[in-house]
Specification:
With 337 residues, this protein is α/β, with parallel strands linked by helices. It folds into two domains: 62 residues, 2-Layer Sandwich (Alpha-Beta Plaits); 250 residues, TIM Barrel (Alpha-Beta Barrel), CATH 3.20.20.70. Helix 6 crosses helix 7. The two termini are 37 Å apart. Bound molecules: phosphoenolpyruvate and manganese (II) ion. The site of phosphoenolpyruvate has 9 residues, from loops.
């Protein structure tokens, strides 16, 4: 149920409504918009509908949320959510550019590529310290050592860190170093992991599962928000189809659909979406054109030596060229870079 409050409702009135709901075992999520406050009451619908909510001081109207995703939906929050990460934001006018290697491969390499992407206009450093590899014999990531290098890169460049969490047992250590926790495609429906990151207040970049529908994607975000963490960002990274030319099929139609259904920001990862270096920049441009709030791309100084995903990694100068082109597209759609 959504409880829409009148514009001048006092903090005391809000407190009273929240208290009443909690007394009846209802989960309460308060969303303060620029104009008015909305209370999301999630729980047993028959209990909630029995409460005299409309009669409480400050309440303008009470409406059911018809979609299965509640806190994630546009019904819950009309305005776009703008998520603050350090000095950066995701979901505002400025497009977020997350760039860096697939995996953190060593201190020197990471700090060098961090300086390069920063120089060309990235505002987040990405890199995996825990890598979800198809083969157990492939490089699995440097673990905490890798997280330390990411934190050092942040110190040096000021860019917040985006890095993947695969195992709920590593939550504490990842939260210690990361500004944005990435939930990888393979874990989009790992519900215990989603609940775990929902208990933190660190921003979560939720990647779309390899064969997940948009509705399932929205429901996974709901898992995180239902635990209290409202700092969630969607990341479209391609899905499996019958097409084999590309690594995945980048479903850009998901971008305007997610923006319609949800208030949460949407980022696109064209690197995993196509898997081929040559097609990363054109798909990044298309992503901005169709309304994405950010781009996540893999950049490596020597892609042929990369421990993972070298084929789809851009060299720093190609990344720089892409940023120039993205600036032109951003202008057309009323965004900045
Ligand atoms: C990655 O970002 O390096 C990654 C493993 O992505 P995905 O989970 O989308 O495959
Ligand atoms: Mn990768």
């Amino acid at each position: 149920m959504i409880i829409v409050l009148r514009p001048k409702t006092t903090a005391k009135q809000i407190e009273h409504i929240v208290k009443k709901l909690k007394e009846h075992g209802v989960a309460v999520h308060v969303s303060k918009g620029t104009e008015r406050t909305i209370i999301g009451a999630i729980g047993n619908e028959s209990v909630i509908s029995e409460l005299p909510l409309a009669a409480m001081p400050g309440v303008e109207k009470v409406m059911p949320i018809l979609k299965p995703y509640k806190l994630v939906s546009r019904e819950f929050r009309k305005e776009n959510s703008i998520i603050k990460v350090g000095k950066e934001t995701i979901g505002g006018k400025k497009i977020a550019i997350m760039a860096g290697p697939c995996a953190v491969e060593g201190r020197k390499r990471l700090l060098a590529v961090g300086d390069e992407v920063k120089k060309y206009g990235a505002n987040f450093i990405r890199g995996g310290a825990f890598k979800p590899r198809t083969s157990p014999y492939s490089f699995q990531g440097l673990g905490e050592e890798g997280l330390k290098y990411l934190a050092e890169c942040r110190e040096k460049t000021g860019m917040p860190v985006v890095t993947e969490l695969m195992d709920p047992r590593d939550t504490e250590v990842v939260v210690k170093y990361a500004d944005v926790i990435q939930i990888g495609a393979r874990n989009m429906q790992n519900f215990s992991l989603l609940k775990e990151v929902g208990l933190t207040r660190t921003t979560v970049l939720l990647k779309r599962g390899l064969s997940a529908t948009i509705k399932e994607f929205l429901m996974s975000a709901e898992y995180i928000m239902s635990q209290g963490n409202h700092n969630v960002v969607f990341c479209e990274r391609g899905i499996r189809t019958f097409e084999t030319y590309t690594r995945n099929t980048l479903d850009l139609s998901a971008v305007p659909i997610l923006k319609k259904e949800s208030h949460l920001p949407v980022v696109v990862d064209p690197s995993h979406g196509v898997g081929i270096r040559e097609f990363v920049a054109p798909m990044a441009m298309a992503a901005i054109a169709c309304g994405a709030d950010g781009i996540m791309v893999e950049v490596h100084q020597n892609p042929e030596e990369a421990f993972s995903d070298g084929d789809q990694s851009l060299k720093p100068n190609a990344f720089g060229q892409m940023i120039k082109d993205l600036k032109a597209i951003a202008k057309v759609v009323g965004r900045t870079l």
